[in-house]
Amino acid sequence: MGKNRPIKFRILELFLDGEEHWNYEIVSKIQEEYNMQGNYGRDSINFDIIELASGGMLRDLEQRVDEEGIYKKGFLLHKYVITDFGKVRGSDACVRYV
Amino acid sequence: MGIDLKALKEQENRRRVSKGYMWALFCAVFWGIWYLPGTVIWVLNPFDEMFGAIAETNGDGVSLVVTAALITAFNALTVMLALMLWNGVLQKFGELSRTLREFSPCSKWFFLASVFGGPIAILGSFMAMGFIGGAFAAVAALLYPVIGSILAYYWYGEKITKRAAAGIIVIIIGGITIFGGGLITELGTGNVPWIGYLGGLMAAVGWGIEGAIAGKGLDISEPDVGLTLRFLGENIIWWIIIVPILAIVGFPMYTYALQAFEPMALLVLIFAGITFGFCYVSWYKSFPLIGVGRGQGIGNLYGFFAVIFIFLFFGDVPQWTILLGGTLCIIGSFVMFTEEAAEIETLRG
């Protein structure tokens, strides 16, 4: 499931479990599902997450420095949770699959 | 450790904001430049000939609208070409087809947006450029945020704050100056280009409505892809609906459409497509980085750029009422938009 849906739908779907997720967890999951390996794929998925957050659908809860290079060494990692608005938009878009 | 995190946060934020301003400024420059090919195309063949031929049989007014329809149709086509190239470079064709198939949550909003964006806003802009001039067309469209926020108020009950209301009033005064200034002199001579003014109003109303509708689909899709679908919709409207209907009614649409494939006209049309396509793309790119408010506020500087470019390339100095009104509109849009940007990290919710 999810694979044939637009990437932002899938990201919202992953967040609809109501849990907090780190951006690198979501990014690597999407990279794998959509076969978007490589730095370009990684950055463009992360930008989708940033857009969802700026649209008020995700909330940036916490940041930490990526010391070990699990995502991008020396950069910030962000932890997000879905907002109420995100739940509404997410279930509008994903309801058939949830 | 703590300092490290703080420094990194600041660095990330700085990087994000400066990129966002860069995109918004790109948008304003491209949007402003668009009025150059948009104005020039009217004096190029086949459109110049087309206008003359139809004007002889049906009068200037009808001829202007019909010619503007064909120009807008070609504009949509070249924008689409530019966006397809853009999506190709970004490797987004997969996402394009995934989003297209999501008709109910996404695509329907893009198609609806294209109805208001294309046959109303862009057609209106071309009408205003053809009948009054590029500077007027550019500055008249600066009224669009007023329409957008009034719609948002009635549709999703979005509050209009005191500050936004103050901005709206400044923009409306600007609008009255822009439209009224020319009208008063023309009423004196008894020769008013009503269709041009109607076009200016169509641009503002159409873009205001388009913005309110497109936001619904764009927030859950990728903007590069969403915009391409919006222009796919516009191409369908022009090439499958309006142009054939005009042809059936008896206007020589296809005769002139085929003639558009000559080097000069084609070059100008492609120039229009590239500038317009990328102004939309960079506009949407700026939103997540600096907020819709600042993005739109800076985007509206296109009014200045258009006037400057038109002056540089054509040597036209617009009437002082257009300059004053345009300045008021830009000030008003900054007043309106900057409040929202205070909470830059989350814009809604």
From TrEMBL, chain A:
- Could you read off the lineage of the organism from its UniProt record? Archaea, Methanobacteriati, Methanobacteriota, Stenosarchaea group, Methanomicrobia
Q: What is this protein called?
A: Uncharacterized protein
UniProtKB/TrEMBL annotation, chain B:
Listed A to Z, the keywords are: Cell membrane, Membrane, Transmembrane, Transmembrane helix
* Superkingdom of this protein's organism: Archaea
Which InterPro entries does its entry note?
Diverse_Substrate_Transporter, EamA_dom, EmrE-like
Q: Where in the cell is it found?
A: Cell membrane
Transmembrane ranges?
Answer: 21-44, 64-89, 109-129, 135-156, 168-188, 194-215, 236-258, 264-283, 295-314, 320-338
Q: Is Ligase among this UniProt entry's keywords?
A: no
| Keyword set includes 4Fe-4S | no
Name the UniProt record assigns to this protein: Choline permease LicB
| Species of provenance | Methanosarcina mazei SarPi
